[in-house]
Amino acid sequence: MNDLKAAMHASASGLHVQGVRQRIISENLANAASTGSVPSEDPYQRKVLTFRNMLDEATGAMTVEVARVGRDTRTDFETRYDPSHPAADENGYVKLPNVNRLVEIADMKEASLTSEALTKSQQSAYEMLSKIYDLLNSR
Length: 139
What we know:
This protein is α+β, with helices and mostly antiparallel strands.
């Protein structure tokens, strides 16, 4: 019975992390065209999430949590020639956010599928616990 409770706890932590992940991806997509407003200002910088495995001492379950929300410093900003833009540099180029919409959409799909699998896992554990309680109460 404790293993089932641990499974539910682990699934719940995973669902929480995937929810945070989906929020970060949504923020990235919403800001995919957010440039600076003056030439020296950088555009929106993609946010990235780092996870960490943790042992929940109370249940013995391996859980996951958000370790850090940071900025994607590995991917360069792209530039576009648009001399009329207020953020254009002296050569007429504007820095664009380092958000790749296709990557974000693929990440969102993965987060959604992971959440779906975790929900099914949690439902299965709940159903097994309910059956155990029913068996114990029928004696």
